[in-house]
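Researcher: Structure for this, please.
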Amino acid sequence: TSPNLAFTLQPLNQLVELLPTRSYRTTIHTDQGWQYRHKSWRNILKQNRIIQSMSRRATALDNAVMESFFNKLKVEIGALSKYASAKELIHAINDWIRYYNNARIQTKLNGHSPVEYRQMAA
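Model: Predicted structure, token format:
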């Protein structure tokens, strides 16, 4: 319900647990929120060989891919006022993300969903 430090550390720690052991570094892109500049956040990144990429102020193109994704999400799930609770909204977002990754075809991926495209590339 609020963007506090725990709100950002919990998914970061979950991500670290899911990442496979790798010989290369991983990059994570964030905005300039204070949570992403906090020492705790940056220490977790450093300990796990994750490089932080941060958008420059007022430069949406630095994060154009995610800005586009969130725009599609907001347009396709509709107005927040149609959801009776945060739980209902979270459920709708999770459903939409599953749809986006597994079923929603993308012209730039030659008419495949992102999951299909990755499987073909592998």
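Researcher: Any notable elements?
Model: The chain has a mean pLDDT of 88. The chain has six helices and two strands.
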